[in-house]
UniProtKB/TrEMBL annotation, chain A:
Domain of life: Bacteria
Subcellular location: Cell membrane
Keyword Translocase carried by entry: no
Organism listed in the record: Pelagovum pacificum
Pfam family, one: BPD_transp_1
Entry protein name: ABC transporter permease
Entry keyword annotation includes Cell cycle: no
ABC transmembrane type-1 domain sequence ranges: 74-267
Broad class of where this protein is predominantly found: membrane
Biological process according to GO: transmembrane transport
Keywords: Membrane, Transmembrane, Transmembrane helix, Transport
Membrane topology of this protein: Multi-pass membrane protein
Family: Belongs to the binding-protein-dependent transport system permease family.
Transmembrane segment boundaries: 12-34, 78-104, 116-133, 139-158, 189-209, 245-270
From TrEMBL, chain B:
Stated name of the protein: ABC transporter permease
CDD domains for the chain: TM_PBP2
Keywords: Cell membrane, Membrane, Transmembrane, Transmembrane helix, Transport
Subcellular location: Cell membrane
């Protein structure tokens, strides 16, 4: 695992760039542990100060320091994204592997459930959930709801890998020597599935984070908890663009673009690693 | 039974299943929630003035019937289905007494128009450029274009829309920043009205197009660069078939098939993109209606828009699936 990362860092510029950007954002987000102004506190500072040497990213109309607020916001947004990604990965791996390995009727039933969830529009359903729960809506609950909607693409992908593993020689050996289905799936098949899981996890993380941003921008999450979308929500509430307080909106946008660019480059280069054909292609050889 | 009939029948079953699950989900979410829609609506209505206790009691009974809260859960469920199939979600609370179905009927054409136009544009541009970039791998202009598309790709809908809004709405006020058409115009098929609709729809459509382009581009490019190395393509090249023929007939055509499946699969998610874009540009579609309904606590409106959007997406997916055999002959041969 570490050797793979080291090699990728050394020989793949895209991976290096993506890794650096993501790491930068992560370091920036971790800085909030030392924040002098906790995110829930308002009117600690003079409002509407433009970026200066004292307030690097300026202050908001709510008297918060944009720099520290953003640091905590990025952390919270990433925490949400990671929670969704991990939960939905667990569902995607279980459904995909079981469906591919068992085949037959179980496969048909699981895949029609899968296809149904693919066709359902996520955002209206999440908005309905928010609407009926309102005050009770906390971010872990929202993460669970998002995870329940976000596993479908990847479980199809995992299933296709599982299907091919099922007919391999070593699976048959396992079955004939009396390994339980559970053991075959976990010990024999999982190592083949995991590289794909890593690749799709990055895309899922991007999806989950933009979901959080979308809902928060509309004010449909716990808006007092700092998050990137939440910052934009408050900036909109105070009409930051019209009154020229551009730094309140510009820095959150910048941070999310850098984060997404980093994750996206990681996803692309890991994809290249998983699928060697595109790597040969890049080197200019004939695949 | 021919394989084509079997294919369509299977898709239709899937369609029914999606509708069934979606409607059931909407029913369960609203009914198992701790919030009582009747009490909530009553607070809304009484805050508008009516405070006579007898009138409130009468209203309570009327609302309970309206929301189908009579009988046990299963009866309520059947009741809900009946209203969904009649597209009757009762009157909207925030625009009392206009029926929800009328509000939706007014908003739907805007969303459908915006969505269809931007999906078509995105799909065509993304796939054509992606196919070219996959086939002519060493073309410098295509490489630069590809880099630009890849950079825009990970930026979420909201930010692309916001950047466009600030740039072309405020800093360089070329395009209008809200609405679907200019106020006080004759609505109908006259040039100035259509022009105004296109003019107002330009920025929302552009942000949807830019946000969706990357997915198609990346998918098509990797599909094409895989097909290029297939035996039949190399054989055609050795046999001296014209490169343009190879590109359009051998390569692009084969790569289109998975992309069409992708189109059906992505529709549900594209709809989510329009919700936020409509909100941002104050575009008079279903997305804005939904968000307004939530802000105003309009129970019947939110439920109505959610259910109708599940229907709409399911129908669109079904249509694409039925058109699919026209493009992929293998479905017919089965």
């Amino acid at each position: 695992m570490f050797k793979v990362i080291r090699d990728l860092l050394r020989y793949n510029t895209e991976f290096l760039a993506g890794f650096t950007l993501t790491l930068l954002v992560l370091v920036f987000a971790s800085a909030h542990f030392w924040t002098p102004y906790p995110g829930y506190n308002l009117y600690l500072l003079p409002p509407d100060m433009p970026p200066s040497t004292e307030y690097w990213f300026g202050t908001t109309s709510r008297g918060q320091d944009v720099l520290w607020q953003l640091s905590e916001a990025v952390w919270n947004t990433m925490a949400f994204g990671l929670t969704v990604t991990i939960l939905s990965r667990v569902i995607a791996i279980s459904v995909g592997m079981v469906s591919g390995y068992l085949g037959g009727r179980a496969d048909r039933i699981l895949m029609s459930i899968n296809d149904t969830f693919i066709a359902l529009p996520n955002i209206p359903i999440l908005l309905l959930v928010y609407f009926v729960l309102r005050e009770e809506m906390t971010w872990p609950l929202l993460a669970v709801c998002a995870a329940l909607l976000g596993w479908t693409y990847d479980s199809r992908l995992i299933r296709s890998v599982s299907l091919s593993l099922r007919s391999r020689e070593f699976t048959r050996h396992g079955v004939f020597s009396g390994m339980s289905t559970w053991r075959i799936l976990v010990r024999e098949h999982l190592p083949y599935v995991l590289p794909i899981v890593f690749f799709t996890a990055m895309n899922n993380l991007i999806w989950a984070i933009s979901l959080e941003v979308t809902l928060s921008v509309l004010g449909f999450t716990d808006i007092n908890r700092p998050s990137i979308g939440g910052m934009i929500y408050w900036a909109n509430q105070h009409q930051a663009i019209i009154s020229g307080i551009w730094w309140w909106i510009a820095f959150p946008i910048l941070s999310i673009v850098i984060l997404f660019l980093g994750l996206f480059m990681l996803a692309m280069s890991v994809n290249e690693y998983v699928d060697p054909r595109s790597r040969l292609d890049r080197m200019g050889g004939v695949a | 039974m021919s394989s084509l009939t079997a294919y369509i029948l299977k898709r239709f079953m899937q369609f029914v299943f999606v509708i069934f699950t979606g409607v059931t989900l909407a029913f369960l979410i609203t009914n198992l929630s701790p919030v009582d829609p009747v009490e909530q609506s009553l607070t809304q209505l009484t805050s508008f003035g009516a405070s006579d206790p007898r009138a409130v009691e009468m209203m309570r009974e009327a609302l309970a019937e309206l929301y189908g809260l009579q009988g046990n859960l299963f009866e309520q469920y059947l009741n809900f289905w009946g209203r969904v199939l009649r597209a009757d979600f009762g009157p909207s609370l925030s625009a009392f007494p206009t029926p929800v179905s009328k509000l939706i009927a007014n908003a739907a054409p805007w969303t459908v128009g915006l969505l269809v136009t931007s999906i078509l544009i995105t799909f065509v541009i993304g796939n054509v450029v992606g196919a070219l970039a996959g086939y002519f791998r060493h073309n410098r202009a295509l490489k630069v274009l590809g880099m630009a598309i890849m950079t825009i790709n990970p930026i979420p809908h909201y930010f692309l829309g916001l950047i466009l809004l600030i740039l072309l709405g405020y800093i360089f006020p070329i395009f209008p920043i809200s609405g679907g058409a200019r106020m006080n115009m004759d609505i109908g098929l006259n040039l100035s009205y259509i022009g105004s609709v296109l003019y107002h729809g330009f920025l929302p459509a552009l942000s949807l197009v830019l946000a969706g382009l990357g997915g198609w581009f990346i998918g098509m490019r990797s599909l094409v660069s895989n097909i290029v190395t297939d035996d039949h393509v190399i054989y055609a090249e050795l046999g001296g078939v014209r490169r343009s023929t190879i590109f359009s007939q051998y390569v692009a055509r084969n790569a289109m098939l998975p992309q069409m499946t992708g189109l059906a699969m992505q529709l549900g998610q594209i709809f989510g993109g329009t919700v936020i874009v409509e909100f941002l540009f104050n575009y008079p579609g279903m997305g804005r209606l939904l968000i307004q309904g939530i802000y105003r606590g309009d129970y019947s409106l939110v439920l109505g828009v959610t259910t109708i959007s599940i229907f709409a997406v399911a129908v669109a997916v079904l249509l694409i699936d039925i058109l699919y055999p026209l493009i992929d002959p293998r479905v017919k041969l089965g």
